[in-house]
Specification:
This protein has about 425 residues and is an alpha+beta fold. The protein contains eleven helices and ten strands. Helix content is about 45%, strand content about 20%.
Length: about 425
């Protein structure tokens, strides 16, 4: 058996497998004798057919099975012997399978990349600082009111925050296109649910007025046939509605999930929730900045098989969030290209985090695991039952241990790398600016 292994930094590798013809033929003969004992061939009693008849009927199929089984076993043996970390199923390419001659195959496959990680102390990441001001609290409460608001038709001109009901006809090069026409279509101005410029173009209009919006589809538009194309929309306003905000009373407080009677107590509860959310948001932003620094300072080849696997996971998650069965999703609706960039980032970070875990010889911290489980259980009516469930279910516990390991790595990364503090507003923090 021959073995050809390229540069260790390359993830795409191959090996040549040569199996002596004697070894193959001995296995084929043994399987034919075994098949002869159970063969049911017309004109012969079970197990009494001559070997040459059995060979004629089953020989080619048995030989092919023996060849591929032998090659697969040889490949697996070599992988274990060399300590290779295979990340893709090998592509076994036959080069010679003639009877009475040595069998020759080429196996191509991908291996887990070897990573030489730069010192964590050389990394620089941004640590954002942010606090909730009174203005932020007031805006949050107004937004909660808007969610509960009722829309009331108005004679006034439309402005940002209004809901406007329209008929529109979209045209590209003067021709209507599929999906570009709608009647009695509600648009909330400022919601950013339409392409850039559409909602802004609806400001300052009254019922029965008409307007032509000359716009451009974005480069990343979901329908590729429309991406980057100039488009015009003939718009007719049917109705302009203004939001009628509910009163800040006990009924409203309860409708938002907060059981208080006074506005002062309501503000305290809302601020407390905002501060908890902000704490997690700042942690995630800091972590992402550190991950970006880690990724930017460590270059290596990423196995395609790992990216393809992550793309599949992301596609399935997207389908589930949309209430679709992942087994029945149309891949044209969720093309791989949509997920590849993010999938590549995730895989690269995963490889780097695993490298840190190996280098630091990290193990799941029982206290960290307990903390995560208790935090997740806290939102349930009977937390202890949920805690017991996590500890009794091996798969769930392993998932939590994986999360705890990542958090341990993040703590090391943030401790050893250099932080640059940056003060940002609450709005910038929430909106990702």
């Amino acid at each position: 058996m021959k073995f050809s292994f390229g540069n260790k930094s390359n993830v795409e590798q191959s090996l040549d497998i040569v199996i002596p013809s004697k070894e193959i033929e001995e296995k084929v003969s043994a399987k034919l004798l075994s098949a002869q004992k159970d063969a049911k061939i017309k004109g012969f009693r079970k197990g009494k057919a001559p070997l040459d008849v059995v060979t004629k009927m089953y020989g080619p199929e048995i030989r092919q099975d023996v060849v591929y089984d032998s090659v697969s076993h040889k490949f697996q043996h070599l992988v274990e012997d060399k300590g290779l970390k295979i990340v893709s199923r090998p592509n076994l390419i036959p080069e010679s399978m003639e009877q009475d001659k040595d069998v020759k195959f080429k196996a191509t496959f991908e291996v887990y990349p070897e990573v030489k990680m730069s010192s964590l102390g050389r990394l620089n990441y941004t640590k954002p600082n942010c606090s909730i001001e009174e203005e932020d609290l007031e805006k949050t409460i107004v937004n909660l009111q808007k969610r509960m608001s009722k829309w009331e038709p108005a004679e006034a001109m439309s402005e940002s925050g209004d809901q406007i009901k329209i008929d529109f006809v979209g045209k590209i090069d003067g021709e209507e296109f599929e999906g570009g026409t709608a009647n009695d279509f509600p648009v909330e101005i400022g919601s950013k649910s339409m392409i850039e410029g559409f909602e802004e173009g609806l400001i300052g209009l009254k019922a029965s007025e008409e307007k032509v919006l000359n716009l451009k589809f974005p480069e990343e538009y979901g329908k590729k046939e429309l991406a980057s194309k100039d488009v015009s929309f003939d718009v007719t306003v049917k109705e302009v509605s203004k939001p009628s905000l509910p009163e800040l009373n006990e009924e409203f407080f309860k409708s938002t999930g907060i059981e208080v009677t006074s506005l002062e107590d309501y503000k305290k509860e809302v601020r407390s929730k905002l501060e908890e959310d902000l704490k997690n948001l700042l942690r995630n932003k800091t972590k992402q900045s550190a991950f970006d620094a880690l990724s930017d300072n460590n270059d290596f080849e990423i196995p395609k098989a790992m990216i393809e696997s992550e793309v599949a996971n992301m596609r399935n998650d997207t389908a589930r969030r949309m209430g679709m069965d992942p087994k029945e999703i149309d891949q044209e609706l969720f093309p791989a290209s949509t997920f590849e960039e993010e999938a590549t980032k995730r895989v690269k970070i995963g490889i780097l985090l695993n490298k840190i875990i190996e280098d630091k010889d990290l193990k799941p911290d029982p206290e960290k695991v307990k903390e995560i489980i208790e935090e997740r259980a806290a939102s349930y009516k009977e937390p202890q039952q949920v805690i017991n469930y996590f500890y009794s279910d091996e798969e769930q516990l392993k998932n939590i241990e994986s999360i705890s390991l990542e958090e341990q790595v993040v703590d090391i990364l943030l401790r050893e790398a250099k932080a640059k503090e940056e003060t940002i507003s609450y709005e910038e923090c929430v909106n990702g600016q």
